[in-house]
Amino acid sequence: MEILLQQIINGLVLGSMYALVALGYTMVYGIINLINFAHGEVLMVGALTSWAIITTAQESLPGIPGWLLLLLATLISCVVASALNFVIEKVAYRPLRNSPKLAPLITAIGMSILLQTLAMIIFKPNYKPYPTLLPPKPIQFGGAVITTTQIMILGVTVLSLAILMYLVNYTRLGRAMRATAENPRVAALMGVKPDTVISATFIIGAVLATIAGVMYASNYGTVQHTMGFLPGLKAFTAAVFGGIGNLAGAVVGGVLLGLIESIGSGYLGALTGGVLGSHYSDIFAFIVLIVILTLRPSGLLGERVADRA
């Protein structure tokens, strides 16, 4: 039971990060029917930016509290990643908005490779240790162990999701986003500016991805220019799992995928007689993707994309 509880805690932490990134995928897809495959690289840029800020500040301001430094680094990284995602949408996606769907898809993949290459040039290709800024002493919980960083991840995820749901459901911007997703032409006639709403959606997605990237780096302790690829791919799987275009589905899909991956990796060795170890845990995300696309292509909670015919 202790092992199961530990894997559940690990799965909730992992699933929380997947959920934040999956929300970026599903928001963009719900409004402009585009899969932004460069979204994982926005996570990477946010994490690397926070690493650069933290390491620089530790050298110049050695007495600053760890939690304050992490907060400041996250806020600045959110601004940097938001500006990057704004430029990506304006330069790479907006000119292709009315093109065949294959064109923006290829552009998104190209943008992903471009961002990885630029990050490799700027930050160098080697793995970098991410500083531990919160108390490292683990906390015992029912026979399992949870760290301060993991508690922070769960708390920040819940807070971020609550703010996003309030923003989408109860604010003027949220109404404009829902109207643009339903029919951008009619929304424009009613005074909504679709281009502004789409840019805001990319900015919100960048903020969520950056928060996930900083949490990912804090939990695993390293950053590198390719670190966004696999979490981005798994978050896309989570978005499809829950129902692409469905915000609640992205959250449910992310958490469930994290639990499946964590629990599965904990028992994979026993189930396969030692043939496969826990380092094969990545296969679970893609098994889930294959099964969902085969049995229920619309996802667990159903796909939400407006019929614009």
Overview of this structure, please?
α2 (39-60) crosses α8 (194-220), α2 (39-60) packs across α9 (229-242) and α9 (229-242) crosses α10 (247-271). The mean pLDDT is 88. The strands form two sheets. Strands 1-4 form a two-stranded antiparallel ribbon. It has a two-stranded antiparallel sheet with strand order 2-3. It has helices at residues 2-32, 39-60, 66-93, 102-123, 148-170, 172-182, 184-189, 194-220, 229-242, 247-271, 283-295, and strands spanning 128-129, 139-141, 144-146, 222-223. Helices cover 72% and strands 3% of the residues. The termini are far apart. The longest helix is centred in the N-terminal third of the chain and has 31 residues, at 2-32. The chain is mainly alpha-helical and 309 residues long.
Largest sheet, order of strands side by side? Answer: 1-4
β-strand number: 4
Termini Cα gap: 53 Å
User: Beta-strand level of the residues, as a percent range?
Assistant: under 5%
Helix content: over 70%
Helix-strand pattern, N to C?
HHHHEEEHHHHEHHH
Report the radius of gyration as a whole number of Å: 19 Å
List the quaternary state of the chains: single chain
Largest sheet: 2 strands, antiparallel
Structural class: mainly alpha
Are there runs of 5+ residues with pLDDT below 50, and where?
A: none
Global shape: globular
Query: For the residues shown, what is the average pLDDT?
Result: 88
Question: Number of helix segments?
Answer: 11
